[in-house]
Design a protein that fits this description.
Layout: H1 26-40, E1 59-62, E2 65-67, E3 72-74, E4 84-87, E5 90-91, E6 96-98, E7 103-104, E8 109-111, E9 116-117, E10 122-123, E11 127-129, E12 134-135, E13 140-141, E14 145-147, E15 152-155, E16 158-160, E17 163-164, E18 169-172, E19 175-177, E20 180-181, E21 186-187, E22 192-193, E23 204-206, E24 212-214, E25 222-224, E26 229-230, E27 235-236, E28 240-242, E29 247-248, E30 253-254, E31 257-259, E32 264-265
Parallel strand pairs: 6-9, 7-10, 8-11, 9-12, 10-13, 11-14, 12-15, 13-16, 14-17, 15-18, 16-19, 17-20, 18-21, 19-22, 20-25, 21-26, 22-27, 25-28, 26-29, 27-30, 28-31, 29-32
Antiparallel strand pairs: 1-2, 1-6, 3-4, 4-5, 23-24
């Protein structure tokens, strides 16, 4: 028996349907991630960006293109502490805002609508960031990542060769390597999804029927099903497959393997 992605995720964004064919295993999706991004990415960073140099002024993307003036950024109690783009005294929810001080290592980055990239964030391409994503201060997104609609890559969070599905959130001090976060996943502060097996060879896990499954990957982090929550300072070892609606208690370490839906790990 093997594991298909449908056991962990009830849906995927339309933009990613080709990456998630029926019956594919999560590790096959990770195997194909690099090629998928390079085939489908539509980079839209403006010419004002100088690779490796922090932006000297904020930039805004609207349907008509990029602009560096004619707008204001607003962050008040009325905006619930989130920076917003306003034009002529009205908020513009579909505007994507790259704050001054954000850094891009090359032009291979695609932004959707309503994205916020805060000062101090660094993004490496190729990376696809879909609508209404927040990339917060000091976040570090490395190459070959897809950040799905409404997701949050939080303060001091590092993301490498991974996928966030809709509204997945890693708000504070997290590491996510070679992993997939399902819809509405929430990582507590300091969660680490370890991805590197120290010993030689690929990561093998015990499947639902008790048999060993070889992922074929030496680097694989965690596959977290929809609505999974992890507590602060929790750690998953390479090769954790955690079913829908499961929970990991604070300060817990999760051993490799398959965990069915609604598992509670203490």
């Amino acid at each position: 028996m093997t594991l298909s992605w449908e056991e962990f995720f009830r849906s995927v964004p339309n933009e990613l349907a080709e990456l998630f064919p029926q019956g594919a295993t999560p590790w096959q999706i990770l195997d194909n991630l690099k090629g998928f991004i390079r085939q489908h990415i539509q980079p839209n960073l403006p010419d004002q960006v100088e690779p490796g140099i922090p932006l000297s002024e904020p930039l805004v993307l609207l349907p008509g293109g990029w602009m560096s003036e004619g707008f204001e950024t607003v962050c008040t109690d009325d905006t619930k502490g989130k920076m917003q783009v306003w034009i002529e005294g009205e908020p513009v929810p579909e505007a994507t805002l790259l704050c001054a001080g954000s850094v891009f290592t090359d032009y291979r980055v695609q932004f959707g609508k309503g994205v916020l990239v805060e000062p101090g964030a660094m993004i490496k391409g190729p990376t696809i960031i879909l609508d209404n994503v927040q990339v917060r201060q000091a976040a570090y997104i490395r190459e070959d990542c897809i950040v799905g609609p409404g997701a949050v890559v939080g303060h001091a969070t590092e993301l490498k060769h991974s996928i966030f599905l809709k509204e997945a959130k890693a708000g504070h001090f997290a590491y996510i390597g070679d992993s997939i976060l399902g819809n509405n996943v929430n990582l507590g502060a300091g969660t680490k999804l370890a991805n590197l097996k120290f010993a030689p060879g690929s990561v093998k896990i015990t499947g639902p029927d008790g048999r060993k499954i070889d992922t074929g990957r030496r680097k694989i982090g965690a596959i977290l099903g929809d609505n999974v929550q992890t507590g602060c300072n929790s750690v998953t070892n390479p090769g954790v497959f955690l079913g829908i609606d499961s929970m990991v208690a604070p300060n817990s370490t999760v051993s490799p393997g398959y965990y069915p839906a609604r598992t509670i790990i203490r």
